[in-house]
Amino acid sequence: VQLQASGGGLVQPGGSLRLSCVASGNWFSMDTMSWYRQAPGMERELVARSSPGTVADYADSVKGRFAISRDNTKNTVFLQMNSLKPEDTAVYYCSAMASTRERDNRLYRRRYWGQGTLVTVSS
Fold first, then answer.
1. SS (H, E, C) 78-116
2. Three-state secondary structure readout of 19-61
3. What is the CA radius of gyration of the chain?
4. With contact defined as beta carbons under 8 Å apart, do 121 and 13 qualify?
5. 3 and 75 in contact (C-beta within 8 Å)?
6. How far is the first Cα of the chain from the last one, in angstroms, to the nearest whole number?
7. Phi then psi for 116, rounded to 5 degrees?
8. Residues linked to residue 96 through DSSP beta bridges, in sequence order
9. CA 96, CA 3: separation in Å to the nearest integer?
10. Confidence class for position 16, pLDDT limits 50, 70, 90
11. Quick one: pLDDT at residue 97?
């Protein structure tokens, strides 16, 4: 399973960006898809998470400003980021929980990561 994130860039405070993450490869099932971020010198933190059949959940710092969505027909998850603040500056990573069938014919559920896309909020 490979995840390819895109859409990062430089934006002024108050601006918007839309991140995309496309999953490719082979899997039996894919359930939770998430966005994390990591600012310089900080630990990686969960930003938003989308699980089938449940309401998306968000970090308190982004509630009301960010929205996660997914297009399962295109194996894509999005993160719409509005009213961006300098403290949103970070590398954003997409993540997916997917089950794959291995050589022993068993299903293994693992977390997969994209390569990260840099978001810089600055005037």
1. EEEECCCCHHHCEEEEEEEEEEEECCCCCEEEEEEEECC
2. EEEEEECCCCEEEEEEEEEECCCCCCEEEEEECCCCCCEECHH
3. 15
4. yes
5. no
6. 37
7. 95, 145
8. 33, 112
9. 8
10. very high
11. 96
Q: Provide the 10 A C-beta neighbour count for residue 45.
A: 12
Which residues on neighbouring strands pair with residue 107, listed in sequence order?
A: 101
What's the gap between Cα 92 and its chain centre? 7
Q: How far is CA 97 from the centre of its chain?
A: 12
**Paired tokens of 3:** 């995840």
Q: Look up tokens 């997914």; give the residue.
A: 70
Tell me the C-alpha to C-alpha distance, in Å, between residue 20 and each of 77, 89, 104: 6, 17, 34
Place of tokens 């002024």: 12
How confident is the model over 79-108, as a mean pLDDT? 96
The letter for the amino acid at 75 is N
Write the CB contacts of 60 (distance below 8 Å, at least 6 apart in sequence).
Answer: none
**Structure confidence at residue 62 as a pLDDT band (50, 70, 90):** very high
